[in-house]
Design goal:
This protein has no helices and 5 strands. About 0% of the residues lie in helices and about 40% in strands. It has a domain of about 40 residues.
């Protein structure tokens, strides 16, 4: 714990440039590797839809940052039919 009380983002200290902004994932449809941009400024836990850069199928992307700023990304097939 830092003694500096002047830090406006101590509740979520990932906006200081050390958190991951790129994640490498494997498409659940085509199996191809993709590199996606992730935004630590949007929170420690995120979920959104993004399309595969290779086959254009929609993913449900689940993003979670741990306390060290490392990102963990999970993909599910979004067209759950
Ligand atoms: Zn794909």
């Amino acid at each position: 714990m830092r003694g500096n009380g002047d830090d406006p983002i101590e509740d979520f200290p990932l906006g200081d440039g050390t958190a991951d902004t790129i994640a490498h994932v494997i498409c659940p449809y085509c199996g191809e590797p993709n590199e996606i941009a992730v935004d630590p400024g949007s929170g420690a836990s995120q979920e959104y839809i993004e399309d595969c850069q290779v086959c254009c199928q929609p993913w449900r992307v689940t993003v979670a940052y741990d306390g060290t700023g490392a990102v963990h990304v999970h993909l599910d097939a979004a067209d759950d039919t």
